[in-house]
Amino acid sequence: MNVKKMFAGLTGGLMLASVLPVSVLGAASYSSELEGAYNYAYSKGITTMSPIDNANMYGELTRGQLAKMIANWAEKEMGTKVDTTAVCSFSDAHTAEGDLATYVKKACQMGLMGQGIDKFRPNDKVTRGEFGTTLSRALWGDKYNGATPFYKNHLEALRDAGIMKMIDTPNQMEIRGYVMLMLMRSVNVVTPSECKDPAVILACALGGDACPARCKGKTPDTTNTGTNNTAGDLNINVVDYSNQIRSVPMVGISIFNAIKFDATNDVTVNSVTLERVGLSSRSDIKGVWFEKDGIAVSSRGTVATDGKVMTNFNKGFKVKSSETLDLVVELSGASAGAEIAFKFIGVDSTAKNAVYNAVTSTYRTAKYDVAALDFSNVGGTGNVVYKLGNQSELTFGQFKVSNQAKGDDRNVFLKSVTFRNNGTADLNSLLKNVKVMRDNKVVSKSVSMDGRNITITLEDTINAGKAVVYTVMGEVASLERVGDTVQLELRKDRDLVAYEASTKFRTTMNKPIQDNSWIMKNYKIDGGRVTLTNTAAFPKTVDAGSGSSDVVIADGTLTVAEPIKLPKMTLAVNNTGVVRSLVLEIGGSRYASTVNGTAFVFDDVYVNKTASIKLIASLESLPAHNSVQFVPTTIGSLAFGSAKGEYTNNSEDLKGNDIAGAVQIAKINVKEAQFTLKNKASSTQKVTLTESSIKTIFEGEMVAPKGDINVTEVTLSGLNATGITDSSQIDLQLYINDTPVSNATYRRGNNVVTFYNVGTATKTPSKFRIEATPTMTQTGDFVFDVVAKGTDTNGNTATTAAVKTVKLSVVESSNVSVANANAVSQVVNEGSNAELTKFTLSARNGSINLTGLKLNYSGSVAALNGQSVTVEVNGNSYTATSTAAGVEFTGLNVTLNEGNHNVVFTTNINTDGQTNGVAVEVASAEVKGDFPTVTKAINSKYLFVKAFPKLSVVSAKDNQLVVKIENVSDDDITITDYVAVNADPTSTTLNGQSVTSPIPVGKQVTLAKGQSTELKMNITAAGTLKLTGLKYQVVDGATYNYTVNDNYTNIATWGTLQVVYKS
To answer: 649: Cβ–Cβ under 8 A, 6 or more apart, which residues?
Structure first.
């Protein structure tokens, strides 16, 4: 029988020929399929022999030859990458023929052949089992490893895929033609590498012309289970996929690859469904979720009985362009040697097309004890109370993390920690600028707060066997509830995320169950020097008629420990054009707002003592709106924002977030109104007991938008006024359109005052004014409720809502305060009109009459004895002669209106012969007038000289301070010495010359006007190097030697002339 001819006629498939020896088959007859396999292999460079008869199609092949064929094919068709870090060294590689040694190593580093062996045997013939295993690894990685014998699962997978049809003779030698044939069949079953390109995937998914014919039907799944698929295409890929099996600890948490989400438009991912694959069981896996920077961003999914697991993004995972997440898996430790991978099988998103063909690397569980950490609080769980405003940064917890990996080099990288607040505070509104410190250095990368949870991303390493203390610090952004507390707790062991630095395995906790050592101290934030509190039961919503005036929408108490100026307060409104005016009333005193766009702004609000606080709105006469709401909805730190007020006693800043508590602002429901009064006046009217003047307490309008009203009476109720004595009274006059229409008198026992015969209220507003003339023998505050009554054209009764007058305040006398914030200490050139000192004089409770001023010097100043001194106040100048002890101005008759007034003293100073200058320290000032005499410490220091320099920092770093010295005066100055703390005396230079203190004459530097030089000093030991003074010389007939130091603020910003030593 001619076996060659018989073979050529076979139609049952080429695999039958694998049982026949090559010597029998010959080399000239090929089926169409085998010819197709050759053409395919030749086009791909798998074989370079031409024509087909030279390709030895029926010849057996060696392991070295297979390494070259499979490496070239896997790289070109499957996109398999070479892992150059993989160690692939074989003692017999050099015995391979030609260039095959190179391909032996390449195939090994691709994870296809030669794993775990010392000898490759490159010249041994290849069996079907060996080839099938190699091809399976090229197609599916290590997915089918682990069976006995080694090739069993691989050959079955190839058979099931229709690639290898006969697997019953695994030990038979494979031939070259069949290798080419099965490689060709593989690309018809498994997606070619070019079809995995994201652009090709999307083109094929959309049916575009850019989809190659060979990729049609070969692109990955594009199922999207979302119901709101609006825009964009989503592509999911495994970033760091490897064909090689990776090892992970059999118990604990590990990262299974980084997963990249690419979107062409903004896409929201709601959930991802995975399927467990590999030689493992669901009991090996406790949970699966996604993380970003060590922070969980999806729910913890568990593997179901069908091997599937879904993890949900509860708030939606936003993909704007490209985002990468870690796929995190917690293993139970059920078995060692389990092989686990996950395939992406579903995604719920808003994308029109979701494309995924992602399978993670395969991970094999191994018995390995990762580094264990111990977490504990520092200092126990006691209570700490802070007074708001006493300090800007506060500590909100201290904890210690210990790396228990003693005796080895397993350092740990701390990634993130999540705490739960057991206290009462909402962390989002309470805190800002939160950070974590270690050894006085910031180690936190970012902080996110979500109500009661705070997650801190860190970048810090804890060496093996070491313990590190961390401090959580932050600032109070807003304290709306006085007494709010913060107590941070580590609730679960997985809330502390750390990795072994060398293996990247996630650490475990030494005590995996929470105890009291995981709870930190309880920090309470009490009100400080300024506190706001709500009036109990004040409504959250108030009804008011359209056009109403004086609608109280907030009521509370402002508690102050000392006089203050409030920070500027800004309140926006959601319905513009409805609120006509907004008034802040504190202790009966009213402050009008200014309008800035849609916001009402209060500024220059002074409060001397604890008082009631109200917010009062007046509405426009417009058709009723449903509601009006102010933003923010409270008077508190949010309304003050970043603005600053001050504690007026010492001009210390009062920041908005130093004000504790808040007063709720009610929402206004606007109703229709028939008849309204509006008071546009807002300022408190003050009079003294000796004063009898006319004060306007109501200035506004009366209007009847629904039709004419015959106004029969207007009543003033004094029930909220201070009681009045028999000898006191307040005469009241009502004006309509500037015409007096009625008068009445408020006196003891007469709680209601009535004006009669008022006139008609129409749709056109009428001017409505009430004037008060008090004749008082007692002090007190008086506020009246004004109500107008009448009848409409049908005889129905119409009544306005009550509208308050402004406060009429009767005081014993006016008073004065002196603020010394602008009284400075400085060096001044001699001459006429040289400033001697200055301060601010504040008139309170009305105008004052200033009759005298006196300055007291500290010690005797002979140079001023007999000198003329001028004071300027309120635009007027007055002169007096100074003694050596001070100067006094008498017989002044200056009227100062309520408010602040600058007072400046000047004199003519001649320092001739005063070789050290003239030093004047003003110790105090006395102010006299029709008020109790006020004495106030000033403590300003002035040094009058012929000339002086200015100092400024050039640089302060690297343990060196460089200071610029510049002459800003007309006369030359010569630098003779410097005064410094912690300066190295051996390395100081002036103008580039090495100098000591005092500076030798030969190295002293003289500066003409406008010239400058540099003084350089170094610090060589722990501490702070500071420049605190300078000595210089001026020659003007005589020689003048001056010393200036950090008392004089116009010479330098002394706080900048320093540098801290760093080792």
So the answer is: 562, 563
**Domain made up of 948-1061: CATH architecture:** Sandwich (2.60)
SS (H, E, C) 347-392: EEECCCEEEECCECCCEEEECCCCCEEEEEECCCCCEEEEECCCCC
Cα 658 to Cα 558, 561, 612, 635, 664: the distances in Å are 13, 13, 19, 13, 18
197 Cβ contact list (under 8 Å, min separation 6):
none
pLDDT tens per residue across span 13-41:
333 333 333 323 334 478 888 888 898 88
Contact 564, 530 (CB under 8 A): yes
Q: Comparing 42-51, 362-371, 469-478, which segment has the lowest mean pLDDT? A: 42-51
pLDDT tens for each residue of 729-781:
899 999 999 999 999 998 877 778 999 989 999 999 999 999 999 988 888 88
Domain ranges of the chain: 32-196, 233-366, 372-526, 530-669, 676-810, 815-944, 948-1061
Q: Which CATH architecture has domain 233-366?
A: Sandwich (2.60)
- Max CA-CA distance within the chain? 149
Residue (of 707, 703, 785) closest to 736 by Cα position: 703
Give the burial string for 865-879 (b: 16+ CB within 10 Å, else e): eebebbbebeeeeee
pLDDT of residue 407: 63
pLDDT tens-digit map of 459-473:
899 998 899 999 999
Task: Give pTM, 2 decimals.
Answer: 0.44
What tens digit of pLDDT does each residue of 837-877 get? 989 998 877 778 899 999 999 999 998 999 999 999 988 89
Distance CA 170, CA 20 (A): 15
Is the per-residue pLDDT at 1004 higher than 50? yes
Question: Please, are residues 484 and 424 in contact by the beta-carbon 8 Å criterion?
Answer: yes
CATH of 815-944, one of 2.60.40.10, 1.10.1270.20, 3.30.70.360, 2.30.180.10: 2.60.40.10
Count of alpha carbons within 13 Å of 444, Cβ hemisphere only?
A: 20
Distance CA 836, CA 503 (A): 73
| pLDDT of amino acid 213 | 53
Amino acid 688 reads T
Separation of alpha carbons 922 and 826, rounded Å: 12
3-state helix, strand, coil in the chain (%, to 5): 15, 45, 40
CA 161 to CA 660: how far, in whole Å?
Answer: 72
Which residue has 């307490």 as its token pair? 697
The CATH code of domain 676-810 reads: 2.60.40
pLDDT of amino acid 822: 58
* The pLDDT value given to residue 18: 34
- The three state secondary structure string of 516-563 is HHHECCEEEEECCCEEEEECCCCCCEEEEECCCCCEEEEEEEEEECCC
**In whole angstroms, what is the distance from residue 145 CA to residue 374 CA?**
39
